[in-house]
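FIELD: query
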Amino acid sequence: MASLETLSKSYGMKKAAVSKLRKQAENKLKEAVSKKRRASLGLVALEKQKEDLTRAKDHVAQILNQHLSQKASIERLKIAAEERLLHEQDTKDQVTQQSEYGSSEDKNSVIERLKYIDEKIAELHSELKERESGHAGLEKAIESSEKEKSKIEGQLKKQGHTKPILIEQLKASTKAESILRPKFESLLKLEAQASNALATVQKKLAEIAAQRRKKIAKLAAIKRKRMAALAAKKRKNNARKLTLKKTRKAKTRKTKRKPTKSIKHKTRSKKASKKKVLKTIKRTATRTNKRTTVKKKPRRK
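FIELD: result
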């Protein structure tokens, strides 16, 4: 019994130690798996973000190219309008110089021509204004597109720095998991073995304790039975003693009584018996007399 108890204690201590090591290994394994999952998810999200940013960059670059081409065309048209304006102004100066030396008829035609030239110059001025406003709007659009493009490029550059870190984390966590998982599984097996051994020892101890309880209960029942028999015997002896005591007391009382009283009692009983006999005789005589009188009455009639 003592050896089993010491064995149970040693198994319990062994199980507690193995359980502690198993919990430590389990926590480390959970941490490694969590880091691996976070790194893999981060890489997937990074790749998706990279694709989105690349698409956005391509879109911004396309819009920027459109704006740049529009700007170039507006600049060309602006230069052409300015050249035409200079040409129209030169022709106007020439026509005004010719009108000074011409006749009155020539002056009328010159005035008409100058009027046409002024209209053309006004049209060119309005066209240049439109080109300048469009050019300013395109400048702003180009500036915002370039800012957006530089922002996307910065994000892509940042991703380029983040991706190697995540890859390194994934590698380290995968390696840690490959080391910790077999260790955890072996500790789990050891814990199961220790718990099984402890359970068998505890089962044996329980069986021994149950047998001891049964033995104690059996001895207690025997003791109770013996005590009950002794108690019954004692009660019987006490009752016997009591009856003997009572009989002795009754005998002593009879011996202590006076003899005169007994004689008087005898005489009284004899007289009472005589009186009873006389009464019965009288009763029988009266009954016979009555019967005879009843029989005699019909004869008189």
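FIELD: remark
The two ends are 122 Å apart (CA to CA).
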